[in-house]
Structures are given as structure tokens and as C-alpha cells.
Amino acid sequence: MSHADILAASGLSKSDTTGGTLAVRTPVDGSEIARLKVHGAAEADAMIARAHGAFLAWRKVPAPRRGEFVRLLGEELRRQKQALGALVTLECGKILQEGLGEVQEMIDICDFAVGLSRQLYGLTIASERPGHAMRETWHPMGVCGVITAFNFPVAPWCWNAALALVCGDPVIWKPSEKTPLTALAVQKICEKVRAGFGDDAPEGLTQVLIGDRELGEALTANPKVAIVSATGSVPMGRAVAADMSKRLGRTILELGGNNAMIVAPSADLEMALRAIVFSAVGTAGQRCTSLRRLIVQEDVYDALMPRLIKAYEGLPIGDPLAGGTLVGPLIDSQAMVAMDAALETAKSQGGSVHGGGRALADSHPAAAYVRPAIVEMPSQSSIMHRETFAPILYVVKYRALDDAIAMQNAVPQGLSSCIFSTDVRETEHFLSAAGSDCGIANVNIGPSGAEIGGAFGGEKETGGGRESGSDAWKGYMRRQTNTINYSRELPLAQGIRFDI
Ligand code: NAD
Asked: What is the pTM of this model?
């Protein structure tokens, strides 16, 4: 399929993709595939006002009916999975299987949210006063702004939007300026669903803002946006948190990771090897949950490392739309420069590099294909404390498990982590309060590729937000405590007497 065919199959017309100033390039070959019109500050404010109008209506629609909207969205995504998956691949460069996987995540979270729409449970609470009842209820919160990163162009929008919509909140999406086409295609799907839904789905229920960080700032600045859920780098999260704190707005922050795997002496090395390769080179190392640090017990180091280096040498690097490719391109040449710089720094800190460097330069001169790199490090030096968004896997040895856990936890980020071990004492210790300090901690499975049923997010510089499954829905609603007096007296709490 040509690039133009992929755009057309996802419902984008010529007028959607031409005539603007924002150039969209595909990392597949570096060519320009669209020029989009960008929104200005006044248009952003008008959209926010429209979303707020939608909120006043949508909050009164019964939650199961709101769930029906999300059910229909999931159905439409099922129908358009192939086309949208291919567009994800074209726009961000992840292999087609992963592009399709992202759309599947959207479908899964829609299914989850439909069930949730009948389970937005509150509590009944025992009152200390006779003839009184207490309860806790959950109400729609307001407009939810969703800011997303280039590497997962569609799934994180849906983790937020599917929940926000059943919770009664309209959604304004500010996608990455590097991947706005997928957002436009999804907005078309939403509009199709809305057109068939009936009058109770108001105009402005879902909207898309095209542009760079200034449009994100339009969301954080406007008090009519009750929640801003932002996915991206740590510097972006700091800026969003600072802006939102000025007006004490609610944030859900999903920021960078620096994820580790501990390989213990009892590990099944065959399984560990597969998990390492997938989680370190999948999406060309551009997942927030990519494996970046491998902490290997010294007794199994020599058994593991030659096999890992050999597996890297045989990795199929190439066009992410072609079958058989496992490693696609980086998003752009800046990412390639950052990877080279990190490898140079690692060398200067004593690292021994296997792989790395540019790939497919002759056939794809305008794209950023690289060979994934393994770097054996003498210790966890400063370069390993940083997230470089590229396929670099640093490897260090450990002797005692507590040292490995301390090393794992020593970085500023706290997203995902895992241990490969068949010793239950080790695995339970890793999952205990004295173990991993990350939001995600896995056993005998890599750090990337979370399921939507669990709450997703991480601690420390990762931002502390939770999205997707479990009780993440509470982040999109406001909690209200109610005390109801059905007696003929007016007793005060704590036995206070106040006679008039
Ligand atoms: P980025 O921070 O450059 O941009 C992310 C989004 O934030 C873009 O839409 C951008 O326009 C917007 N933005 C930037 N500055 C802003 C500001 N001051 N106010 C409002 N919006 C602003 O990130 P990126 O390069 O697109 O993505 C890679 C990063 O995202 C990595 O650090 C990765 O770990 C992280 N990420 C985290 C998760 C997670 O769930 N924790 C998921 C995916 C990506």
C-alpha cells in the first residue's frame, strides 16, 4: 500500500492533509506526507468553551448510556483496526504488528469502560449520629484535556478518553505535533459514532487541537479544563504541573521511564533472553516502558551475554510496514543524534558497546534507522540515570539481590521493572515494600507491554498518574461526601453542644 493509500483508507481526505503549515513526515522514509492547518489560541479557547457546553449536557446523561457511546466507538475501531493500525505505523514508525496492537488496546479499553459505566460505585458510610446516613458519590468532573506523545499516538488517548467519556467528561485531545494524523483519523471515527448516536451526545464531546506545545499550554491555562492528563517527557510534565498548580487544576502525569530487569541465578535464561530482546528493541526502544537497564547476577552473566549479543546481531531492521521487520526507524534524525551522543558518553564512562550506529543509510537516506546497541557498563554511572529514547540497553553485574534492587531504584524515574527468577523468596522480596519502587513490577515477564486491566503509571519523575484499568476512573470524577439527616433532631458531630 502506498502512503497516500494508507491516508485515504483511514478516512483522511486531501483537504484534511494539505494547505497548512505543520509538515508531517513519516519516519518510514523521511518523506512529507501531509501539511496540516494548526489551531490558534482563539480557536483553542473556542473549543474549550464548546467542550464546557458539552459537559453541562453530557454530565446529565446516565452513565450506562454514556457507556453505549463508548461501546459504539469500540465497534467502529474494530471495523477500522487495519486502516488505523497502518496509519499508526506510517506516522510513528513502529512495526505494523505494534500499530495494530495499539488499536487493539483502544478496543480493549472501550470494552472495559462499557462495563465500568454500570460500576461507578460509591460507598455507604456509618454515621455516628442517630437518624443520619452518610454516603460517598462520584460525579462528572469537567472537561478533560489529553496531551499525548509521539511514540503511542492513539492508545493513551483512548485510555483517557474511554474512561473520561463514561465518567461524564468531554475530551479535548492535543496530540504530538509529530503524530497528528492518527488523531484526526480517530476524531473522524468519533464524529461518525456521534452522528449515529442521537441527540444526547452533544457537539464538542470529543475534539482535537492541532499544533505544538502552545496548544497544550492553552489547555493547562484555561480553568474550564478541569483535568489535564499529559503523556510525554519529564520536562513537559514539570511544565504542565507548574501551570496547573497555578490554578490548582487536576493533573494525571505519565512521564518518562528508565526501566530495569534483574536476572537472578535461578532465572529461566531462555525466557529472559526473549523478554530482554522484545522489551529493549520493540518500537526501536521508544516505549516509555522499554527495557533500558539489565542488572545480571554475576554467576549467570557469562551464560547470558554472548547469546544476547548474538540475538542482537540477527535483528531484522527495516521498513515497519513490511512483514518480518522487528526494528523500525527512530522518529527522526534528532533521536539518532541523541542515541549517538549517549553511546559516546557511555564509552567515556567505561562502557563497552556492541552494535549501534546508523542502518539502511543507502536505501533510506532521509530516515533514521539504527542498529540497537548493548553497552556493558562497569557500574551504573550517570548516563544510566537518564532516559535516552532509543534502543540502548545498558548491562551491569550484581552479586547480592539487595544491591540489584538498590541499583534499580537509584534512578529518578519509577515506571516499570521486572525480575527473572524462579526462587519465590527472591520474587516476593522484589514485589514487597522493600523491593521495586516502580508503579509496575513484574515477575518473569519484561517491563513493556502492559494490559489495560491494571492501573498504568509510575512514581517519582514518572509523575505518579494512573490511567487505564483498576480504579483509575476515579481520576476523571469528583468525589462528594453526603450526610443526610432523616431524624427530627439536629445533633452535631463529635457531641458538640450549641444551644440557641
Ligand atoms: P514531549 O514531552 O516532547 O511531548 C509530549 C506532548 O507534550 C506533545 O504533545 C507536546 O506538544 C506536548 N507539550 C510539550 N511541552 C508542553 C507544555 N509545556 N505544555 C503542554 N504541552 C506540552 O514527549 P515525546 O518526545 O513526544 O514523547 C517521548 C516521551 O514521552 C518519553 O519521555 C516517554 O517516556 C514519554 N512517554 C511516557 C508514557 C507513560 O505512559 N509514562 C507513554 C508514552 C511516552
From this structure: 0.98
